[in-house]
């Protein structure tokens, strides 16, 4: 993100969102997906800030939710109920009931016990629940093991060896309408051959279902498209064109089948930076520490996944040195980057940690009883 639109005084730490870049990204998503007629649901878990959500819903996207509260937030921010898909391995009874009341488009179901509970609750409410079965296709996303979801050792989805049996059972349930298959194999995937592998596996599954005379109207490929964390200035918008073209080339849809995606990171990651100030520069024997007023409670990704975020000192033009850029939390994992090359850094300097728009604010906590970082925007919202 370009930081030229920064207000003169920024409260730190804070999340700073570039709404112009968000709009450009959404236009790119539209241009790249509409030739194929694909349906895009924005994955709310990546960033649930209402200002961003209202912008996103205006582009006609649906929403991918994983909790009752996300469904509530999506509706409040303009996403239509008939564009909401609802996933998650542990939906509670009350969440299922509310989703049925709101008449969302589809439950993405992860186990047979869950489908039985949805059937029972829908029956009690005199409704029929539309569901898609989430298939664990055993395709390795080759991404960080914490964000790989499509192999058999993960808790997600129905395993391939169970699929036939699950479908047979589901077709007997009176309050369930099976409308599709759902896949999601992982996140931060930049190698398109992984998605090609997913298409090929989906074709095989469709073929097997066709042989049983079963044609489902919806296929949902989840999310997962990665972004360039190393060069946020050079590549501010993810490669949506290659992503959708891969599915268009390798997936063989049945006639009239509708194809869905649930993109999170690729839509919002580059639009947000975490801004912090240097509290102290501390000299160790072998290294210098730049201690920020932002910590792992504000941005957990580096501590949890050893994730790389580009760090920039916006205040200094002095000769470069190396710093470990750390936060104030009482944990050694509270480190945003080791041996980061920065211009000579001083107390009070403004630091940007780039590409934090996805899984930044939503994963923040009040650990150490710290306040949650506020969000500020590149322009005031036009509502
Ligand atoms: N659909 C499902 C079923 C998902 O589980 C996810 C993300 C998405 C869609 C959106 O995936 P995306 O397009 O954002 O890759 N906290 C981690 C990422 C966790 C992703 C969880 N599922 C991180 O900070 O890298």
Question: Can you walk me through this structure?
Answer:
It is a single chain. The protein has 383 residues and is α/β, with parallel strands linked by helices. The protein has helices at residues 19-33, 50-58, 68-76, 93-101, 112-124, 160-170, 192-211, 240-250, 265-268, 301-305; strands at residues 14-17, 39-43, 62-65, 84-86, 106-109, 129-136, 158-159, 176-182, 218-220, 258-263, 272-283, 288-292, 311-313, 320-326, 335-343, 350-353, 375-377. The longest helix has 20 residues, at 192-211. The radius of gyration is 22 Å and the shape is elongated. The model has no long low-confidence stretch (mean pLDDT 95). Ligand LLP binds at residues 43, 46, 64, 87, 147, 184, 187-188, 222-225, 262-266, 301, 305, 359. Residues 43, 46, 64, 87, 147, 184, 187-188, 222-225, 262-266, 301, 305, 359 line the site of ligand LLP.
